Amino acid sequence: VETKFGALPNYQYALGLAYYNQHHYADSAQIMEKLLLRNPPREDKVEHVLGDSYLSMGKLDEAETAYRKAIDENPKDPEYYVAYATALRRSGADHLDDAIIRLKSAQSMNPSDWRIQLELGLCYESKSQFADAATLIEQAAQSQPNLTAAHVALVRIYFRLGRKGDSEREKIKVAELERKQQEKLVREYSTDSLIDGSSQQDSGESAH
């Protein structure tokens, strides 16, 4: 298959994305870099994955450059603004204002996007604007009740606002979500998946 289709941009993109999803970020970045030299039809998507790969490797400057190029190619995709703002926020306080400007631009396109609400809220938290941060991250948590990152952030933000009861409530929520995630992992790696032939069917229960 690789011999026949290996030169096709779609194949290379899919291969790079597969490497990224398997946490082989350097391999993903290398493939996307080479693909961009061939002027693929959707350079914005390639730049986005390249930026994600760089971000996962801690190469913040390279990630920011890739995300900016993705935005230049397709300024109507809010996800690119969120990714770019994430890289900016991780780069330090000097970059927060730029991140907020980018996120507000994305928010004007999609006000209800929970990813924008969460990242914008985290930026405000980094600027110690805790009330603004709480409002936005509460919206994200309302939209995505099982979004652990939102509840973890609210633990910190409520504490800084002096809302100790709300902070404790969020701690309980985080513990509950983490417990459910652990239970899910246990189910996925249960004895049903072993190759020795043992399963819950032996006890009359159906296997999943």
Offer a quick outline of the entry.
The protein has helices spanning 2-5, 9-21, 25-36, 43-56, 60-73, 78-91, 96-109, 114-126, 130-143, 148-160, 164-188. The protein has 208 residues and is mostly helical.
Question: What's the arrangement of secondary structure elements?
Answer:
Blueprint: H1 2-5, H2 9-21, H3 25-36, H4 43-56, H5 60-73, H6 78-91, H7 96-109, H8 114-126, H9 130-143, H10 148-160, H11 164-188
Helix pairs in contact: 2-3, 2-4, 3-4, 4-5, 4-6, 5-6, 6-7, 6-8, 7-8, 8-9, 9-10, 10-11
Description:
The protein has 208 residues and is mostly helical. 72% of the residues lie in helices and 0% in strands. It contains eleven helices and no strands. It has helices at residues 2-5, 9-21, 25-36, 43-56, 60-73, 78-91, 96-109, 114-126, 130-143, 148-160, 164-188. Helix 2 (9-21) packs antiparallel against helix 3 (25-36) and helix 10 runs antiparallel to helix 11 (164-188). The two termini are 32 Å apart. The model is unreliable at 194-208 (pLDDT under 50).
Counting DSSP H or I runs of 4 or more residues, the number of helices is 11
The average pLDDT value, as a whole number, equals 89
User: What proportion strand?
Assistant: under 5%
**By helix and strand content, what is the structural category?**
mainly alpha
Largest sheet: none
First-to-last CA distance: 32 Å
Tell me the helix content: over 70%
pLDDT < 50 runs, ≥5 residues? 194-208
Secondary-structure element order, as H and E?
HHHHHHHHHHH
Multimeric organization: single chain
Number of strands: 0
Q: Which outline best applies? A: globular
Rg, rounded, reads 21 Å
